Amino acid sequence: MRKKLTSLLLGLGLAGTAVLATGGAAQGHGYTDSPVSRQQLCGNGTVRNCGQIQWEPPSVEGPKGFPARGPADGHICSGGIGRFHELDDPRGGNWPATSLTAGQSHTFVWRITARHSTTDFRYYITKDGWDSTKPLTRADLDPQPFLTVAFGGRQPGSTVTHAGVLPQKTGRHLILGVWTIADTGNAFYACSDVRF
């Protein structure tokens, strides 16, 4: 009887572990679709050799409070999640880049797969002279977001769009989108390579 009970408990434990293991991968949250983010480029197969992020593009969730807190420098695009480190790899500055026009209005689009009460969406851009062949650091970004969209704790829909004027930039840059969650200690991070 004891052997059967031990086998049953072990089986239940393994089943529970399997549920937890698959549950984490199935839970997504959100990513930018315009301009297209690195995680979306991996998820849709445009970029190869992306590791686990190709199956979990909406899961780049890290500590909120950027830029004072949040993911460490060099790990911002992955949200500080080690298994998504491919997003931090600059790939020699060769990530596909969305063409944008400086000073023009752009409609930013987030795809939301798990809705959360939201503080805001913020967009940062790299400084002039940024080196696209190196992992992103805070020092690479203009210190203030060029666009902040307050959400006042509301839950977004499955698609969030908002328009903002793009900064006056030329050449290749990176836009960091940060979706700050109101009722947890986390935010979602999305790096989009762009060319003005």
From TrEMBL:
Highest rank taxon of the organism: Bacteria
Segments forming domain Chitin-binding type-4: 29-194
InterPro entries named among the record's database cross-references: Cellulose/chitin-bd_N, GlcNAc_Chitin_IntDeg, Ig_E-set
Keyword Cytoplasm: no
Swiss-Prot/TrEMBL keywords: Signal
SUPFAM superfamilies: E set domains (SSF81296)
The keyword Transport belongs to this UniProt entry's keyword annotation: no
Pfam families in the record: LPMO_10
Signal sequence residues: 1-21
Protein name stated in the entry: Chitin-binding protein
Protein source organism: Streptomyces spectabilis
